[in-house]
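User: Can you predict the 3D structure for this chain?
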Amino acid sequence: MAEITSATPQLLRRVSAGAVLDFLRATQAVTVSEVMDATGLTRATAISVCEELMDRGWIRELENQRAFGGYQKGRPARRFELNERAGYVLGMDVGILKATVVVSDLRGKALGRASQPFADAEISAEERIAGIDQAAMMALRSVGASPDDVLAACAGIAAPVDRNGEVLTTQHFWGLFDVGLKSAMYQRRGWTVLLENDANLAALGDRWRGAAAGVDDVVVILASERLGSGVIDGGRLLHGRGGGAGELAYLEFLEGVGDTYGIAAMARTWAADAVAGKAKTSLREFAAEGAEAEQVFAAAAAGDAVALKILARLADRMARVIGSIATMTNPELVVIGGAVANSAGVLLGPIAERLPRYTATPPRVAVSPLGASVVTVGAVRCALDYVEKNSLDLELAVSA
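Assistant: Here is the predicted structure, written as structure tokens:
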């Protein structure tokens, strides 16, 4: 029989501090009595823990205020709240041609954003890291923060990433993102950087603050230029053995699809094909620059016959894609995400109408309200999860 040992005072203190900090993250200003009710701590312990967390910079005490309604006997109740500016997290969306970095406070509020383009897709690892670092520093400067204020960062990349943050490099394109970002940023800035697939982060972001809020079985599809998906099953993000869960390369073999190009890419291609012919269409006014998905959808809404045919083709294509995903993973909801989500709502009805042809388990379908920010929102959530799990081991610049 295993020996049972009692918890040490240090361990109990740590557990108490974690419980108080978790409660304050989920609330606004609270009194000591409310802390006691939420955590089960005695008054003396609750006060002591709050003072310790205040000394370390995680929480702050508010000025005492008498309750409304007149005179009260006794000392006003002490009130505490999370110090959401005790540090910052960074959410990074690292694409093939651009890096975007968002600075967030400890409640997940985005405070600043910056983007940095890359010269081309085939730049060196050093150049890609330098561009990411430049975007991060620009974002921090925009909110008056320094590198020392960063508690964690998460970067989303367009390649599979396993549970340990290792990039799957069995394709050349994926290998372009295997640049040693975690070690490089630790050496440059002392930051902990988490690495994750961009579609997986889109799933985390939309489930946190998007159409999938509160849904435990959901697939989020990044659907603008290329199709990729993040799968959450029973509230748990799926990675697979090498990080390949949710990869959609099999679409090359799916009848009626044949590749992984997304809604924006196909709308642009099919509109260009149409104006190259003799069909009468309002899309000709965009012939020089090329019609984008939003313009195709607007023309369809106005009754343009060519645009309506493109919309129908897109709906059928996405119904086949979603049907195949639904057959394999059986989600409650599939969310269309990425920049194209801002205009893709017109596809929802036609997709839902076609879905029963392609799967026996058709899910609900929605578009993400987060648009092009869905990956950085998920990256912020991922970085916050790390900070919240490791708070008591992190040293804050404000306390130092």
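The first strand starts at residue 30 and ends at 31. The two ends are 46 Å apart (CA to CA).
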